Amino acid sequence: MHMSDALLSPAVGGAGWLASAAFVAHSTRRLAGAADPGAPALMGLLGAFVFAGQMINFTIPGTGSSGHLGGGLLLAALLGPHAAFLVMTSVLTVQALLFGDGGLLALGCNVVNLGVFTCFLAYPLLFRPLVGVHATARRLTVAALLAAVVGLQLGAIAVVLETTVSGISRLPFATFLAFMAPIHLAIGAVEGLVTAAVLLYVTSTRPELLHRKHAEGRPLLPVLVVFALATGLLGGLLSWFASTRPDGLEWAVGRVSGSEELPVPSNGLSGALARWQEKTALLPDYSFGSAPEAEVESLPDGPAWPAPDAGTSLSGLLGGVVVLVLALGTGLVLRWGRSRGIGARVR
Amino acid sequence: MRGVRFTFPDGSEALRGVDFTIHHGESVGLVGANGAGKSSILLHLAGVYLASEGEVRVGDWPVSRSTLVEVRRRVGLVFQDPDDQLFMPTVFQDVAFGPANQHLPPPEIEQRVGEALAHVGAEHLGQRPSHRLSGGERRAVALATVLALHPDILLLDEPSAGLDPMTRRRLIRWLGSFEHTRIVASHDLDLVLDSCERTLVLAAGRIIADGPTWSLLTDAALLERAGLELPLRLQGSPVTPHR
Amino acid sequence: MTPIDRAISHLHSLDASARLDSPLGRLDARAKVLVTLGFLVTVASFGRHQLLQPLPLVILLSAGWALSEIPVRSLGFRLAIASPVAVLIGMWNPLFEPEPMLRLGSMVVSAGWVSFLSILERFLLGMAAVLLLIGSTGVDAVAAALGRLGVPRVLVTQLLLLYRYVFVLAAEVERMLRAHSLRAPNRPRPELRTVRSMLGELLLRSLARAERVHAAMLCRGFAGELRAVTPLRLGLGDALFVLAGLGFLALVRLADLPRAIGNLLR
Predict the structure, then answer these.
(1) Which DSSP symbol is given to A115?
(2) ipTM field
(3) Is residue C60 in a domain?
(4) Which among B77, B87, B109 has the least Cβ separation from residue C229?
(5) Buried-most residue among A10, A240, B214, C22 (CB within 10 A)?
């Protein structure tokens, strides 16, 4: 999932940019060292391939839902981690620029979430050793499945962390994680299977395509055991963390359903109404809703929450409307002015 | 080319001993069925492929790793799919790509781009993005990208593929106006008939005939051996055509 | 229209409007990138309950739109259908912040709803700003500007090539999916098995094309670096634009304009 600008605080966004810039600098240096003459064209085309390939939505067997290729792991398998990371960065940048996927502020976070974990953790630590020197179909599938699942799980955890730390969404960490982890388990599994299938398809005709640098095979079993242990440990840690936080989803829902009768401060709606009416000479005919007063009367006494200052709210709203009208006017007047002036010419 | 053989990394043989010499100013057609080795020959002449065996010479230069820069300065290859050739954001930048790589000063680059585009009648396309061109425009700009390098030898791979009849006719006229050495690889035998004096017929990685275009392309038996058939305009009209 | 057609025509429309001559389009891409980044940081820096204070930013967007050639329809359409991730996550806020915050007549709006609306607002403001940047500048110029602003050349080259060939490959995908829908009219989407060969085929073609493109580069003297001849000139107008843009952003951030205006009117 793409992290979104709308959920991000400037600090977290900036940290994401710094982290991704560091990885871009590192990858650039590594690529400059390994002068592969075919690289620019190959990287460019593979970037376009991932971009275009993501447009193919397919039915996930057994479910009604659809999915598409992510591409990070596939790129790493074909290009090696450094070039793959740069390609992934370019794909995410163009997506942010053209489709608003995530947004520019969140770009750094997205590059970390979807590029760094897959290219610099899942690929070298899981995929590469599991595939080994002699890639059989089985090894390739297992490796792709595990690497994709882990890469996307880490990405999902990062999204949750970034969102929680930013503090714009109020979704509690544990709830959000409980929601994201299973979804990304499924997404990761599909990603792994598609990656393996596509790799098998192309290497059956062109076996030389698999990036083989630093290819040292490791026996499958120990890696799997270590992986299982790590997963168990992480799961245990997370569930411990979740249980120490009382703000689970049920709690929240119960809390909210309990507060169906919204606690309205008791200084009275009618008073506020009168005050507003006096002050709003600009809008004499404005009617303030039609909620029956009886409902308001039945509310419990005593302000449960600090009372919002009605006057402040109103002047803000009024100003907001004026500003929007101003904005619309600015745009229309400017465009009108231009259309009367020189028409658009092709540059 | 002397005894040139070329084998792809997957083991398939593209060229199995090719010999020919082309002199300055000649226009030569290279015809043959799919996979006969037309493109491979062009790619050897441009130094993209290096012969597994035998020797390729361009002018005074043997084509080898150490002479690639010199060879490519003299040879201009126009690819079959203009999309492969137009990789820069705008037409201007695409045509300027080659001169810029020769480290020419910017005013000269601009002049070269202007001349090349004017030569193919595409001056008005300069600032257009390459992906927004029609098939004919693409072809014209692809030619311009090569002309901007002032090559001595022009290599064209299927230049008429995907062109409408009018555009194709313009291309043929244009090919006739080019005074340098040119080699045209094509299935379009009518195009070869119109624009080349000499023709090489290829089959399965070997040259099976080399001679004046007119006599080779009227030889139905020879063409059949090469997986081709008579140029369309000669089909069904046994009378001696006029040129 | 399939989603791919839509995506491609969206790309084309942004690209086309960026190539039209307009006051905003004439500005240096670096100036626009800087102001856009400033805009995004400003939007993000508001508290999640400051729903009204960012509204004056719309004036900047509106002026930017008016000084560009972006058709309002494509802008509005894109804003309406854009990815709903922010909405999907933001919509839980009303559950977690039931404190009352705003009153509209008899209606009390809880803090959660305010912050939810704020998320929507952030999303719309940010997305509109980025679309304005691209729709008045184009990916090529933005990439060139990024290069001048210190982004490594490898990445700039990569962005340019990616963008160039997205159009070619997307057209290939479109043809594949059309062929699929003709042969499997009862399935809206291909199945995993079909997709394997579709993606595999697309990948093989992309790789083959990469080799040809590389050859085409070599034939024209490519020596490892794409030398773009993009004229970028920072003029007085650009400096003024950056100053005015950032100044306005600072004003909106530091002073609560809507409230000030509201107080003035009452």
Answers:
(1) I
(2) 0.91
(3) yes
(4) B109
(5) C22
